[in-house]
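Need the bound structure for 9-methylguanine, inputs here:
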Amino acid sequence: MDNSIYLKPSGFLFGAAASEAVHDGQAGLLAGGPIAFTLADVIEGVPGDTRSELRFYSEIKASGDPAIGGLLETLTAPRAPFAGLTLDRPRIMGVVNVTPDSFSDGGLYASTGEALAHARALAGAGADIVDIGGESTRPGSDPVSETEEAGRVLPVIEGVRDTGALICVDTRKSGIMWQAAVAGARIINDVSALTHDPESLQAAAGTGLPVVLMHAQGDPKTMQDEPVYSDVLLEVYDTLAARIAACERAGIERAKLAADPGIGFGKTLEHNLAILSGLSLLHGLGVGVLLGVSRKRFIGALGDETDARAREPGSLAAALAALNQGVQILRVHDVAAARQAFTIWSAIHA
Ligand code: 9MG
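Answer from helper R.:
Posting the output first, comments after.
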């Protein structure tokens, strides 16, 4: 692989301090705002063999290096609305698992009626997006057939079209993408970043829907066996950049894409923490950043909590840390709690 350059912003400012520093040329806006950054790690090399230097924004901007200048421009450019949602404030994607075996709420919403009621409740609690999935992707899970998955998700999608929340289908299968689009889905969320099904890239392009590209190393069945990276943050970045390029070649414009580092998908606790502490780097991809931390195993491991439903405090702490690095969309189970926490965060940082 070629020698690459990465910029990892830090030294964040909010509100009036951010505006003033940007006006004075001391800071740039992260993905167009509202957070500004005054510093960045300039990282050069290939994952596992890099040099890194912490530099002031103003110094980087004045450096005259075209590669760094181009990346800085991508990092600071305002993001296009995603599926019609402006990304200037935290957006909430509520999770609806129509499955008998999800780690977070396994079986609670497995019937169409229960899933529908739950999706409506999440929309009513302020979800911008409801993410409806019919195949568990928790570590160790088995795939389900397309017929089974369609039978789980399509009636729920059809039943929540009138709620005002955007409907997202969580699937890795091209056939489900097509059927979900007809049923009323407005976003595709693929935890394999359109790699699991060889037809999925063309299907996603054909539907014209915006897509969430999530990074995963390996398949759900075996991904947690022994995940290995030489530099997890940079490798996740490179993989997502390659998937964005593949989407663009297939006719899906960048404005229709969001990137997600895939917390817990082929990652150890240390890998997850390295990604979460370096999330700001992902804005260099030039698309909105979406993150799912809600109730995940790393919260259980750090917080000593085996019951996934009791991991809400840790989930909110991780989500707020992500907002502080400019993440625009959070995938959550408890929408009402996230909405309250994000409202307080926004008021403090206005
Ligand atoms: C389906 N699914 C489970 N976890 C997820 C995460 O973190 N991100 C996205 N996009 N989808 C997820």
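Comments: Residues 232-249 form the longest helix (18 residues). The two ends are 42 Å apart (CA to CA).
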